[in-house]
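Weekly sync, protein design subgroup
Attendees: M.S., D.O., the rotation student, P.L. (late)

Item 1: inverse folding check
M.S. brought a backbone from last month's batch and wanted to see whether the design step gives back something sensible before we order anything. D.O. pointed out we never logged the input encoding, so this time it goes straight into the notes. Structure tokens as presented (399 positions):
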């Protein structure tokens, strides 16, 4: 998955469960999807255009004849990564089987080759109707994913199969269908990101060039795989992420304190931040005049990663980062051993690479001796590779 938002079309059929799709829309947005809502005309009897536009932040159309110059049925089909229709009524199932294209939503479906995920919701007798069941099987044979409705109370006193499933169940099934695994559900992931700063005076500081992009990519990937994510973010322009608890800090001491406070309850620590190795022995209360700025006495900062890793439980997985300009693999293995890590990713920062970039290259080294060189690729893919290893390590640590 990439750090950029993924485009989703959320189709809404004309059933009473349409109002529940409002929560589904919010959850999709929390998972870093950009959502365009395409309701059927009849669904607007339940939830109006203004609601969908307010929640999605995008204009909403129901007919092909609206904004004709934008050729929306083609552009939406091309731009979207997937289509989810929730609720899908019996009538809409039948129209999709027939290949009908009599409103914007069915036109988009006909024009799209992307994954399609349907969430039926209707009266039990309509769901169990042989024609409806046959339509479901036909759509599944054509590659549509059709979710099984829940069982429970429906409109009025009616009860049975046909109820709109819980949002969590829809999200999990949808992500599985589009290939986004949920292998970190319930796991607590603690991530540090950005670069710490140590004050010299009220104006100047000792810092580094870390942007926080790699830590943010890790937080997005972990969240999308079902984890409960806390990110300790130092001096980064990265925006706060929906579904990620973000704690902002400035200095190494503040970062250590925030990580320490959250470490005990975490299953995984990923130390992606660039922490200042030293700080001034004293901080001037007033700006130091240029002529007086001859030297700065420094004292070493605590090695946060080593402090946390050496006191970690056997079941906790610890991942470190290192930035090197040469001998990456050799230095990475040495740091992994000295800091008692399960994994380390060693960035190749020679010639000013990596910092503030959307891409990275380096070695991913594990405590079991495996070392893999990752060619230049997006930090989002680096995050995926790292978390794949984390999942494997969690299984080993807790097996």
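Designed sequence read out in the meeting:
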């Amino acid at each position: 998955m990439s750090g950029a938002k993924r485009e989703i079309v959320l189709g809404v059929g004309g059933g009473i469960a349409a109002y529940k799709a409002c929560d589904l829309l919010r959850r999709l947005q929390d998972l870093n999807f950009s959502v365009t809502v395409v309701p059927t005309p009849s669904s607007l009897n339940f939830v109006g255009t203004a609601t969908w536009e307010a929640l999605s932040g995008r204009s909403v159309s129901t007919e092909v004849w609206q904004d004709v110059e934008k050729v929306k049925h083609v552009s939406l089909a091309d731009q979207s990564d997937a289509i989810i229709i929730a609720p899908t009524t019996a009538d809409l199932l039948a129209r999709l089987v027939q290949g009908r294209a009599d409103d914007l939503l069915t036109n988009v479906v006909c024009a799209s080759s992307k994954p399609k995920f349907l969430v039926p919701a209707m009266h039990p007798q309509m769901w169990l109707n042989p024609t409806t069941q046959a339509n479901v099987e036909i759509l599944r044979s054509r590659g549509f994913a059709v979710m099984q409705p829940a069982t429970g109370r429906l409109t009025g006193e009616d009860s049975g199969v046909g109820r709109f499933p819980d949002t969590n169940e829809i999200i999990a099934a949808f992500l599985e269908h589009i290939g986004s695994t949920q292998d970190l559900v319930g796991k607590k992931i603690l991530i540090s990101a950005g670069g710490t700063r140590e004050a010299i005076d009220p104006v100047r500081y000792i810092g580094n060039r870390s942007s926080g992009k790699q830590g943010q990519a890790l937080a997005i990937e972990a969240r999308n795989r079902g984890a409960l994510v806390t990110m300790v973010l130092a001096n980064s322009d990265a925006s706060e992420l929906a579904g990620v608890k973000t704690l902002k800090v400035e200095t190494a001491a503040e970062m250590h304190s925030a990580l320490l406070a959250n470490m005990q309850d975490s299953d995984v620590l990923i130390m992606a931040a660039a922490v200042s190795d030293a700080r001034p022995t004293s901080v001037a209360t007033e700006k130091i005049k240029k002529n007086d700025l001859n030297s700065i006495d420094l004292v070493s900062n605590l090695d946060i990663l080593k402090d946390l890793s050496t006191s970690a439980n056997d079941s906790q997985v610890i991942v470190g980062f290192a930035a090197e300009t040469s001998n990456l693999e050799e230095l990475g293995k040495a740091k992994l051993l000295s800091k008692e890590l399960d994994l380390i990713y060693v960035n190749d920062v020679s010639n000013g690479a990596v910092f503030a970039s959307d891409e990275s290259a380096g070695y991913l080294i594990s405590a079991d001796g495996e070392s893999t060189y990752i060619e230049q690729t997006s930090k989002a893919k680096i995050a995926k590779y790292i978390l794949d290893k984390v999942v494997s390590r969690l299984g080993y640590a807790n097996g």
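Discussion: The CA atoms of residues 204 and 287 lie 8 Å apart. The chain is about 35% helix and 25% strand.
Action: P.L. to compare against the previous round before Friday.
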